[in-house]
Every structure is written in C-alpha cells, then in structure tokens.
Q: What sequence folds into this?
C-alpha cells in the first residue's frame, strides 16, 4: 500500500515541476534525461584531457602531497573520492563548464546551483559494491541530476554506470512501489536487487571522454568492478547549501593554487 503522505508530497512536486518539464521536452538532451533517465554525450573531453586528469588523480591519491587532500574511501579501499576536486585543479573541473551548466541548470529550472566536482578512482577489490555502494536512488520525490565524465574506457568489467530506464518517471515510481511495496522514500535499494533485476537495466559502457547526464531520482548504481580501474569526474548539485554531512570531506578552494603549483 502506497503511503498517502508520500503520494501527496509526490503529486504536489510533480504538479509544480510539470510546466517547466514541457519546455525541456523540446531540447534533445534534456528530453532524453526526463524520458529515459540519461543521455550520453560522446567525445566531450579529448584523450589528452582524460590522461592529464587521471595522472592528477593518481598524484593526489598516491603521492606524499596527499596529506593536503581530503579523501573519502569505502571500507575496502576500492572506491576513493576527492570531493571538491574542482577546487584543487582546473584540470579536474567540470563544475565550471558552460555547456554542462546550461544543461543542468535548465533541468533544475534555476540560474545557479551549489555543488562541486568529485574525482574518483575505483579499483577491482574482491567484494566491492561498486561506485555508490550498491543500488540506490538519490531522491524519490524531487528530480536530482548529475553529470558524470568517464576518464577511462568503461566496459562491463570496469564498473559502468547502470540505470533502470524510466525509473525516475512519475508513473514508474508509483508502479514500482505498488508492485514491490518498497516505500517511495526508501533510497538504499541493494537488498531489493531481485525486484530491480525484474525490469530492464542499461549498462552505460563508453570510451574515455564520454559525458553522462543522469536523473538520479531513478534507480542506479556503479556496477561492481571486476577488472582494472575506473576513473571519473562527477558533478554534484544542490539548489540550497551543500549538505552538512559532506562538508568535512570537501576540499577547499584555497588549496587550489598550492596544489596546482605542486603538480606543475
């Protein structure tokens, strides 16, 4: 049974977002993100840009200068993340990219957003849950959007972004709760994988330099990596302030000049 309180909040949000959505459906990228849940832009970065970014990520994670960098790691040390990488080097910054900003702000329907670029290196460690630590949805009521730039070639073995197409659409969210009895507000879904795999799952395998724009209200995860390493940059966005539980891991803009000088 769908909780009435959740359904009322959901209906109010959908009504408010509805008029904005109609205009977005005329734009190819935004239309894909709203209808399917994602859009892939090939060759967004060159091979040289990706290589430089991978080298920088390795430098910040592996060199003695690491003590100046705040790093989040999962329990296995498979998933290493540098939040606020855009504050450390312009070569790790897609948060300032004009094209990305135009797409994302149009989806949110605002002029500007708070957030940052996260740089990540995911390596094959037995028992890893993949980027994002399993199946989840960032929100079930409000649309949430991310931009993910692959810095290395990603195939089925190297932790591709997996997405249940249309799972962020209003009707599909209601149908999913009605069919599975998983609460609309339940965000962590790894223990419900048997329900998730009863519907289509797209694996977004793509070469380095590919940019993914995704509605992370839909069900998704980074597939557990079984070989090699996966490098990526991901933009996180909020209409208001960055959540307090993230702030302790966020690298400061004041470190940018120091770190760029150290690298170059």
A:
């Amino acid at each position: 049974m769908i909780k009435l309180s959740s359904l009322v909040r959901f209906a109010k949000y959908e009504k408010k977002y509805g008029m904005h959505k109609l205009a977005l459906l005329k734009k190819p990228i935004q239309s894909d993100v709203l209808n399917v849940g994602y859009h892939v832009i090939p060759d967004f970065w060159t091979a040289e840009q990706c290589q430089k970014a991978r080298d920088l990520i390795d430098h910040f994670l592996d060199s003695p200068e690491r003590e100046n960098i705040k790093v989040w790691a999962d329990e296995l040390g498979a998933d290493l993340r540098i939040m606020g990488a855009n504050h450390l080097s312009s070569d790790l910054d897609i948060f300032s990219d004009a094209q990305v900003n135009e797409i994302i702000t149009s989806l949110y329907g605002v002029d500007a957003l708070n957030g940052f670029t996260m740089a990540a290196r995911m390596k094959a460690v037995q028992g890893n849950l993949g980027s994002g630590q399993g199946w989840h949805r960032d929100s079930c009521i409000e649309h949430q959007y991310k931009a993910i730039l692959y810095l290395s070639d990603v195939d089925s073995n190297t932790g591709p972004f997996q997405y249940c197409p249309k799972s962020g659409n209003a009707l599909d969210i209601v149908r999913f709760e009605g069919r599975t009895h998983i609460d609309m507000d339940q965000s962590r879904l790894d223990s419900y994988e048997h329900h998730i795999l009863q519907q289509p799952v797209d694996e977004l395998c793509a070469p380095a330099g590919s940019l993914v724009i995704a509605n992370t209200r839909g069900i998704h995860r980074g597939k557990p990596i079984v070989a090699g390493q996966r490098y990526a940059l991901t933009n996180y966005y909020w209409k208001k302030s960055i959540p307090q539980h993230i702030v302790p891991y966020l690298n400061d803009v004041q470190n940018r000049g120091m770190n760029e000088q150290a690298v170059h």
